[in-house]
Design brief:
mainly alpha, 2 helices
């Protein structure tokens, strides 16, 4: 075989190999692009789901607070009323028995002072 013919065969083989490599690269590129698009769609879906879950959690928390607020207001009102009644009871007891009230207050003061002094 002569050299020009060998060069032509080698050149044709190299061109054919180049075409094959280019075609394979294009196919791989298309597959990679498709996979990336699918991955992008999955990530977007996850982000949308997370966002929706967050919105639902905020809505539920708001509903819970709206439901609890009136109850908390009622409890606070009841405590205030009981505190007022207790204060009135103590005022009446002190007015009726001032010496007993003074002895009780002294005993409480002494007990608190003793406990504080120990620590």
């Amino acid at each position: 075989m002569d050299q020009p013919r060998a060069r032509d065969i080698a050149k044709d083989g190299a061109e054919q190999a180049g075409k094959t490599v280019n075609e394979a690269a294009e196919r791989v590129g298309e597959q990679v692009e498709s996979t990336l698009d699918q991955g992008k769609a999955v990530v977007e879906d996850l982000a949308n789901r997370a966002s929706e879950t967050g919105r639902q959690a905020v809505n539920r928390a708001g509903e819970f607070i709206e439901g609890v607020a009136p109850q908390a207001k009622q409890v606070a009102s009841n405590l205030y009323e009981q505190g007022s009644q207790s204060g009135e009871y103590v005022r009446q007891a002190v007015a009726q028995q001032p010496v007993t009230a003074l002895l009780i207050a002294g005993a409480i003061g002494y007990a608190l002072g003793y406990l504080m002094h120990r620590h």
